[in-house]
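User: Some background: our group keeps a shared notebook of sequences we're curious about, and every so often someone picks one and asks for a predicted structure to add to the entry. Today it's my turn. The entry only has the sequence so far, pasted here. Could you supply the structure so I can complete it?
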Amino acid sequence: MPATWELVYRRVFYILLSVVAALVLWRALPTVWESLMTGGWRPRAALALIVGWYVIMRIAARTNRFRALVERCQSSGLACGLSFHLLLLGLPLGVFAYLAPFHRRGDMFVSIVVMLILISIFAWRSTRKIHSDTLQ
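Assistant: Of course. Here's the predicted structure to add to the notebook entry:
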């Protein structure tokens, strides 16, 4: 019975996270689109950076060496894992925010903080699953 309630709470939590992510995207996508169309070279360079970063990470994720690095960082502790995720995900988001700034700085900071929180939760979820499976 407790496992059923844990499953229900987990699904409700992830539905709420999805709603928050949808609201952030609903607010940020029109601003990013307008910036791409009228902003000049900086927003386009930011988009190229994000797309290039994604392609590089997908290619690197196929290698055993990168997988070993990720596993070592995730298993060595919370601080190392958080630092790795901030470097892996925070660096391109920060450069994107610098290159393609929103009209108001508050929107930019709120969007980056919400994205980093959501990414950290999903990264923690995948790490937690791996560790909870090995303990049983």
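Suggested note for the entry: The chain is about 90% helix and 0% strand. The radius of gyration is 18 Å.
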